[in-house]
Amino acid sequence: MVLIRWAGLAFLAVNLAHATSGHLTSRAPSAENILAAAEALQGWYNPSKGLWDSTNWWNSANCLTVLANWALVDVSRSRQIDVPSIIANTFEKAQRDVLRVRKTIRESGLIESRYDLHANKRGFTEFLNEYYDDEGWWALALIRAWDVTRHGPYLDMAERIFRDMQGGVDDTCGGGIWWSKARDYKNAIANELYLSVAASLANRVPTREGEYVRIAADTWAWFKASGMINQDGLVNDGLDILPDGRCVNNGRPTWTYNQGVLLGGLVELAVATGNGSVLDQAVRTAKAALAALTDDEGILREATGCEPNCGADGSQFKGIFMRNLAYLQRAAPNDEFLVAILRNADAVWAKNRNEKNQFGISWSGPPEAGGGPNASTHSSALDVVVAARAVVEANGAVSNG
Ligand SMILES: *[C@@H]1O[C@H](CO)[C@@H](O)[C@H](O)[C@H]1NC(C)=O
Ligand SMILES: *[C@@H]1O[C@H](CO)[C@@H](O)[C@H](O)[C@H]1NC(C)=O
């Protein structure tokens, strides 16, 4: 595989021999449909907070990310809702939210974040809070915001967030970062985000490229050996720390986002190092996820069968997987991935959309399942719709847009 570095940016590694048959791509939701879905997302946008109502703080980082990814594939239509000004407003105001976050893991493995009014009214200044995963989501969102706008302060802030995340690293389990500043859980998502932010910064900040590449490569070496990737190639939620100090896979759910963020992180790492061999693991995990975490029709379904009640966190996960699968698809094209992305995007549009063009939690529908669409379920499904557009464009295929 040839990795091509383009304008210092990531994820354009092209397998030139790859060809895709037209019928696979012809049904991707059209550019006009995606505009309608982006407008529906903005129905929840609260300009005075810079956040999306009906969902939580970390989810809002993902709302911003999907809008930025859409702006990268459709500059002209994204002007109609002025994505750069949404980014600017969110950048200014989302740091001021005066909440405190507490996360719990239920018996079923379901993760729940609760954001409560904070007594000190401190706010999440500079996008920092008690949880390293929340920080990582905002760092990735700001990196994508920079990709769209090239506005330096977004990339500077992503670097500042990363500096805080570095404080979460220690030798417990031989390395890696903790989930939170309480230092009681080493899990997959925080470490995948750490890897992805480091590798993404390596591809965008030339003055510190060596440092970021080293951190990303070390994090991946640790992660691969940590035991979190099970024998099926799927990533479980995290590690149990045994009384003797050894750390083992805790067998908790293989959430779709735990598979997804790893794919995007490894794509950025491959570009940063110029060594595509790390994509072998990404392909393995992606295939394992598509085999294990889909229904009979090939539609992505959250691990544990929690749908349609996956809580305020779990309702975000599937889109994160598909967004990252699209990054992998552009780096290492594979018809299985292309078909999966397009089929899921089609299902969302055809079966999981209400009359307001809002998407619900279950991609095979109906949109009202689980209490109906909110900014989390909608932005998550929008991710696969935008991903479909991105992979079709990358193929240069004709579509109905
Ligand atoms: C790429 O990485 C793999 C494993 O990480 C290593 O074995 C190989 O030597 C590397 N290739 C190059 C060209 O550096
Ligand atoms: C958003 O909707 C999903 C599915 O209906 C639900 O599980 C989740 O709790 C909702 N989010 C919030 C913050 O209510």
TrEMBL record:
Keyword Signal: yes
Classification via InterPro entries: 6-hairpin_glycosidase_sf, Glyco_hydro_76, MUG_Protein
Keyword Signal set for record: yes
SUPFAM superfamilies: Six-hairpin glycosidases
Keyword terms of this UniProt record: Signal
N-terminal signal peptide: 1-19
PANTHER family in the record: ENDO MANNANASE, GH76 FAMILY (EUROFUNG), MEIOTICALLY UP-REGULATED GENE 191 PROTEIN
Name used for this protein in its record: Glycosyl hydrolase
Lineage of the species this protein comes from: Eukaryota, Fungi, Dikarya, Ascomycota, Pezizomycotina
